[in-house]
Give the backbone structure.
Amino acid sequence: MKSLYIITGTGKGLGKALAEVVLSEGAMVLGISRTKSIEHDNYQHITLDLNNVEKVSGFALPADVNEYEKVVLVNNAGILGDINHVGKLNNDTIAQTFTVNTIAPAILMNNFMRQYKGFKGEKIVLNISSGAGKVAIDGWSAYCASKAAVDMFTQVAAKEIAIDGLDFKVFALSPGIIDTNMQEQIRQADKEGFSEVERFKEYKANNELQSAEETAQKIYWFLQNTAQFNDVIVSVRDF
């Protein structure tokens, strides 16, 4: 099946690992990030600052995808923001966290569904969420709330797709705890700003973190087997 994957945050971490898995399977990848770190004949890089709402809104998805049998949008890019208690946060960073984690994915999903409504092949949107969107974690207020918003936006879209009789599939997926730069940022927090910091240091010390490559393989498998899943909110722990 000739496929096109549009993936955000391909400069590093999970986004880069997922893009590399997809490329190894022969698909085309349109990677969206501020930096290019992948060289491949089937890879096209787009430099886009997801914190710039105007530029995200004006970003043009590929117009002609009729050569493909499947198009997939993976909203992977995300930031943790400040790790501190409310009342001690930087206001600009609050806005940035919601813009990158919630507003940009929502706009890209909206544009994807508008652009490809008439496409006859398989159409999937996968929003990378987090378990943090389902539980309150002190010091992570903006991150938790922004990921909870992604979950709800995806659930509402799925309900609307059913009402409108469209053939998009949309999911919000929690990838688990991955050994990325975000985990490094968490381990550097002080206990006053994040009471559970020692637990996250233990994850690393005890080799309990998933690799980005392992997680990417699981996500790629999921994207080939979405027919097995009825729920919009999913986790790598489900497969």
In short: The beta strands are 3-8, 28-33, 43-47, 70-75, 122-128, 168-174, 233-235.
